[in-house]
Every structure is written in structure tokens, then in C-alpha cells.
Design a protein that fits this description.
Layout (H helix, E strand, L loop, with lengths): L1 E5 L6 H7 L4 H8 L12 E5 L2 H4 E5 L6 H7 L4 H7 L13 E5 L3 E5 L6 H8 L3 H7 L10 E5 L2
Antiparallel strand pairs: 1-2, 3-4, 5-6
């Protein structure tokens, strides 16, 4: 659910984030970027693919924990952490934005040794439908795959 994007002359991290309906923080996290002004033309970035279709954004409030947020949205806390590049014991901070998976989709995070057939069987769909729902599949450990359930 990620694409590669080559930065064009004059683009900023903010303009790239808007182009992909995401935020600067997400692009920084995906690309291990520490400073917003460190991108330049010709640089390849990993960007979320259609995140607005599969996720909503939640801004962390004081006193929140991943477990509480997962419970509030009725999702698996480990899935919530993984979708956001976090471990369950990582600290989260007020003002930080995270992705909340939408309920009409099921999600799977790939593991070493997965094949199209094994992932398709996890979703109970054919390999062809899996490919239709996820046009870019690398089957590298940690890739997020999606299936519409409704």
C-alpha cells in the first residue's frame, strides 16, 4: 500500500504530503527523514498509496495509549502499532498523528515466507482478487495488504 515517488523541482515535504492525502510526519517516518527541508528534487520517497481510502487519521491526545485507541476503534492493538511503524511499548505523544484502519477492510502485514497463495488464503480470496485489491505487492516482511470485506 505504498508507492515510490520522485520529488520534482520546487516541491516541499508539505506539498508532497498534500498530493498523497497524508501528512509530513508520515512521510518523514516512512523515509527516515528528520528535517522537513532535507528533501530535494530527484529524491525518491516512499509514500502511502490511497491512504484516504483505507485509513482515517487520529491525533494523539494527552493520556492516550495504543491499547486505549485500539479498544476505542475496536481493532487489534498490535495491528494498530504495526500499521504505524510502532511497537506496542513505544511512546506516543500528544499531537502525533496515527493511521486508524477503516472497519470495512481487513488488513494483513506480511511475514517472511508469505506467498500470494498463503496471503490469499488468510483473506479467503483468490490470488487474482488479492492482486486487484493490492496493485503493488512485494511480499517483503512488513508490507500491509488490504481486502475489502463489505
Amino acid at each position: 500500500m505504498f508507492d515510490q515517488y520522485r520529488v520534482k523541482p520546487g516541491e516541499t515535504l508539505e506539498s508532497v504530503a498534500k498530493k498523497f492525502a497524508t501528512n509530513e510526519s508520515t512521510i518523514k517516518d516512512l523515509n527516515n527523514i528528520y528535517y522537513s527541508d532535507s528533501i530535494r528534487a530527484g529524491m525518491d520517497l516512499i509514500v502511502p498509496k490511497n491512504s484516504q481510502n483505507y485509513f482515517t487519521y487520529y491525533t494523539i491526545e494527552s493520556g492516550d495509549s495504543l491499547f486505549q485507541i485500539a479498544r476505542r476503534y475496536n481493532i487489534n492493538p498490535e495491528l494498530l502499532a504495526s500499521l504505524n511503524g510502532l511497537d506496542m511499548d513505544d511512546f506516543i505523544y500528544p499531537g502525533q498523528e496515527i493511521l486508524i484502519p477503516k472497519s470495512e477492510y481487513s488488513y494483513y502485514i506480511t511475514k517472511e515466507g508469505d506467498t500470494l497463495e498463503t496471503v490469499g488464503s488468510m483473506f479467503k480470496i483468490s490470488k487474482e482478487k488479492l492482486l486487484n485489491n493490492n496493485p503493488t505487492i512485494y511480499l517483503q516482511e512488513g508490507q500491509i495488504l488490504v481486502n475489502k470485506v463489505r
